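User: quick one
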Amino acid sequence: MKNLKLIFRLFLLVFLVFNLWGCWNYIEINERAIGLSLAVDYLPDQELYLETVEIGTPVIIAEKSSMESAIFQETGKTVFDATRNLILTVGEKILWNHFRVVIVGEALLQEENKLIGLLDFLRRDNEPREDLLLVLSKEKTAAEILEKTHQNKGEKIVAIHLDNLFKNEKYLGKYKAVPLWEFAMKLATSGVQPVMPAVKLTTYQEKIMVIPSGMAVFRRAKVVGYLDDLETKYFLFVIDEIKGGVIPVQTEIQGETVRLTLEIMDSSTVIKAVKQAGVLVMQVKLKTTVSIAEIQTSINFIEPKLRKRLQEAAEATLERRIQLLIKKVQQQDQSDIFGFGMIVERQMPKLWQHLRANWTEIFTDLKVKVEVNLEIQGSATISKSLEVGE
Amino acid sequence: MLKFIKTLFSNKKHQAGSQGKDTLRLSKSVTKNLQFFRELLTDDDLIIYREFEHQGNSALKYAVIFVNGMVNDETINENIIAPLIEFSFEVETGLKESLLDFLIKKILISAKVRREKVVEELINAVLYGNTMLLVEGVAEALLIDTSEFKHRPITEPRSESVVRGSREGFTESILINISLIRRRLTCMDLKLKMMKIGERTHTQVCLCYLEGVAHPKIVAEVLQRLQKIKIDAILESNYIVELIKDAPLSPFATIYSTERPDIVVANLLEGRVALIIDGTPFALTMPCLFIEFFQANEDYYTNFLYASFNRLLRFGGFFLATSLPAIYVALTTYHQEMIPTALLLNISAAREGMPFPTVIEALFMTLIFDFLKESGVRLPSPIGSTIGFVGAIIVGQSSVTAKMVSAPIVIIAAITGISNFLTPKILGPIIFMRLFLLILSSILGLYGYIFGVVAITIHLMSIRSFGVPYMSPLTSFKIQEIKDTAFRAPWWLMNYRPKLIGDRNPVRQKKSEQQSEGSE
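Assistant: Done. Structure below.
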């Protein structure tokens, strides 16, 4: 009797464990196709979504197995419908956990809800990651990016190429990786508008490559304009996300036009919302540390006087560029991608209550002051410029 | 059913006890006594009965009984028979009672002589190599230690070899083993209690402890448990282990066994009790804690930093050996999102077209490793290396090329197998834990794995070894107690003995003056 009771209790314990496991999801790896990147387009005349997916496929040649990728395409009435339809061509259910990149076609941006639908699906489904990168295709369709790069023989996987590309943004500062969560967050928050990096194709020696091409500026879920590579850099300065890259400077010294390059070592930006004479003014203060990376003259900039001149010239360049960028975004795109609204909300919450409703108009005419504090930290491994002997 | 088994066992005990030989008595006549022993020890042709008398006085009749091959013949010839034949004395009436004492004191040339009346004792002693001397007119016998049998020389133990440290290991002879301990621990606090266990083997067991350091309750507990043993034979120390250990159903050892006298001495010094058993080179020490399986004697003989590093390796090895296949199976079949993409692609490529599920592969390969290990253990080394070759080439390489199992699983099995050997004393529990976790994680993924770990932890936490919690120093937060766990503190910091075992005499070394000055 006692044993029976004990066995019953043990059974209950074990049984409860089996009930608590949540999503039981046993899959052998080789039974699922590992999706790496996805290109989503919309065919307005057929009212269909066109999805192109890049799948990692093992290639086994004489005991050595390596990974290549193959692309598959399918259409569907909705994003998820198309995704499931992909089984028709792929043959296996796609594993979404490892998606790195989602390439958004421009057709999807014609209607706001199309992009929202895609984002909703990516965030709602339990498999895709929140940190997958969103990329806008500057080609006619997003599918082209995958299709054309796959025409190269023996090329590496596009998803991994793009992933690496965006990981190395910090050395260049000309584009910015935008993960899904960031885009969705900025889309949902008032006082800031999202941006998305754009990619395009280029051909070099008959090889087609994907390269980044600035950033797309969004107002709500619609593209309103683009920033080019340089503008992106100054945009990154303002939102305090520049991690590296170079600043080319051109200045007049001793009657000579000197070109030199400064490498950004460190930069921090503080934006303050202040009221000056009853007018809301955004004060953008940059504190940037640079080092001299390249000088196209034999003038010796290690001298304090010249260094000061150089510093002032660089500060002026940076300031002017940033001012120009902000003006352009304010007037052309009319989209607060800098998040000035959020800063006002944080620093002047009461004022924000009044401004919130028509922030877009207020942003257009917002006064922005830029102040650059540049410090030339060093000159890398040589102190004197290269001297040219007779 | 249970009752039936119980009655079976109790019957057997009855039979063993009812042989009562202690009712038998010796007589005063040598001839009668010889006849008596001949009948008692019938059909044993190796026992030699030698009757003789004094060369002049035939009233002085003697007989010796001994076992051929277990005694030193020369000792019997020269130290017992020769003096008795040659040395003449008058048997006075008053002397008869103290005749044996007279022989012991004046005639017999031997260090170990004792009088004995009990027949069973006499027979056991003879069978162990003593010589029994019967004297006419006395209903008692003398036992003279003439035992001499061959034993293995002291060699380095094969199961516990070291790079640095003593190369002496125990042998099968209990006296040699005790001498090895005593040579390392010449202090009068070392107490050695001899007892005999085994109704047929009469195996000598020596209980050692350091008085004043070992807890008397633990000593008493060990003694009590030993006295309860009623088994007929003790051939190896594990007989005793299984009969007296705590948590008898658990795969985890709660009694430590070792072949090395230095480990036994170190354990005695920490307040543990040691058992040395005749006929096996494996001594037992208790209480035993889980952490002891991660402590190698060499840790204390090498630099403490290096020793601490090795400790961490052992913990890592333990983790890998128990969990690696389980975690691999859980990740590849339930949590693909947790594997880095590049690795996932590689695994996927390797698994392409594999006929069996990952779980089966993992079970199969780890079991194959156990097969290879088990088949190699008891083979002579030339064949052993063949096994290794077959294992590596045929099973490892060919199974992958033949697409029977995927390459990652072979790597996993190999790493698991190798990390097994970092903690060689808990191979058994590790195998069970590995299987347990593997099966759980194949049913429930990481969730199951975590449940398995929780279950094992609860089990380990609930075990006690002779009253001491099995996991005790690992769960402590005090520096002095954890100084010898994941890290081995330098000797100048190990001022106290382990708290729960050596608490009787906690100070191992007094803090040197310099240190105390520094702390003030």
